[in-house]
Amino acid sequence: MTATRSIEIDAGHRLLLHESKCAHPHGHRYRFEVTVAASALDAVGRVLDFGAIKEKVGGWLDAEWDHAFLVEKGDPLAEWLAANRCRHAVLSVPPTAENLAKIVFDKANDLLRSSAGGLRVVRVRCWETPNCWSDYEAGE
User: Fold this and answer.
1) Which of 67, 79, 132, 137 is catalytic?
2) At the N or C end, where does the chain have fewer CB atoms within 10 A?
């Protein structure tokens, strides 16, 4: 059994090595779909209360990435953002939808691990636009 919660944030990014428009600073309305699975339902009949995913994973996204500019380590823009007290997050990888999905997958596993016995995150889908997304699934 699985349960999925969708969480949306607004953030900017750029991809230094991109061959086209995405090399320039721009923003997205990101949507993350966090899918969790459990071997058995809880006493209420759920994998996990959707609110727990919103509170824990959504709370982390809100605190760390919402209305922030996501940059990879070594991007000279990071220094300017810091000097001008702009909200930003420096990532160890380029801020692509693929990498963001993996980061959120790993963080969601950490945050939800203690929520219920046997609970595991099985997939995170990162929507960068209404037409483009990337999935990271367990075992990849």
Assistant:
1) 67
2) C
